């Protein structure tokens, strides 16, 4: 797998007890890290998937509400986990839905491979495809954000018969956005980028006069000596309480659990020659024929994905006749900042707008 310079050599300390099946090493966050988290009273569920190396990995998921209800699937991104959806789950359950929220491999209560190279975009697709088919979910309305969209839209296009509708918020399906002539110059610039502090990332994303802010994010995750997820949320979202900050840190007792959190930004195919570009282009061809309801509900203040809804609105047939919206007073993690508006988007798309207030 191609990596930007300096990403492979950023080693992670390796401490604590490691579990091993076949050749893939992984860590499992101790259960007591998840005790008494604020606003997260949910019982864990687990399912084993093929790790691609002859062994298995355990994926955690929440499964709340009426088991016979219409399915709402909530997919998180990096560096979050299902805790991000804590305020959306109760009203969706109240509206009669079965609400399912998995933790991606490397995050939350799911197993965490310890080697950077074990994380690839293709493997995440395979792991979540295995999970989805074992769950045998159908009639799904899915909420996608951040990496939840990079993985989720691939699931939607691969298993379109299982999905009834899509709400896309602050996400996309990139196919190498950087023009080919800028690829090598930007890779050279990347080598010289400083590792900024978490509180500087927002400014870097908003600066349109020079280097793309996403490269600073890649460098930050790959090379920051002490990556702390709670600090990232506190820097990005003014609605992150001290309790929430601790909860976002909970899956990662120390840096040896964080290979996935460090790796994800380098897997986003922003350059034309990166892995999964062609696969994402093929998925776009399916999206161009996807005629089930497809809503864009992007935040008004997310410099990471601003304008990313335009291609979907133009090219996805399912966007026609849908009440798209801009969610106000929200940043990148819109589920953290405006959970009520995210719920309303799902209720509107599914025709359940009166479910909570008949």
Strand content range: 15-25%
Label the overall shape: globular
Please state the structural category.
alpha/beta
Give the proportion of residues in helices. 25-40%
Number of strands: 11
Tally of individual domains: 2
Radius of gyration: 19 Å
What CATH architecture of the largest domain do you see? 3-Layer(aba) Sandwich
User: What is the name of the CATH superfamily of the largest domain?
Assistant: Alpha/Beta hydrolase fold, catalytic domain
> Can you list the strand order of the major beta sheet?
3-4-6-5-8-9-10-11
Overall pLDDT score: 90
Rounded to the nearest angstrom, the distance between the terminal CA atoms is 53 Å
Oligomer: single chain
Separate helix tally: 13
User: Could you name the CATH class of the largest domain?
Assistant: Alpha Beta
Low-confidence stretches: 1-21
Keywords:
358 residues, alpha/beta, Rossmann fold, 2 domains, three-stranded antiparallel sheet, disordered N terminus
Give structural notes.
The termini are far apart. It is globular, with a radius of gyration of 19 Å. With 358 residues, the protein is of the alpha/beta class. The chain has helices at 89-94, 121-135, 147-158, 180-192, 201-206, 213-223, 229-236, 242-249, 259-267, 277-287, 310-315, 334-337, 339-350; strands at 19-21, 24-27, 45-50, 56-65, 71-75, 98-102, 112-113, 140-144, 163-168, 294-299, 325-327. Helices cover 34% and strands 15% of the residues. Helix 2 packs across helix 3, helix 3 crosses helix 10 (277-287) and helix 7 (229-236) crosses helix 8. It folds into two domains: 25-177 and 271-350, 3-Layer(aba) Sandwich (Rossmann fold), CATH 3.40.50; 181-267, no CATH class. It has 13 helices and eleven strands.
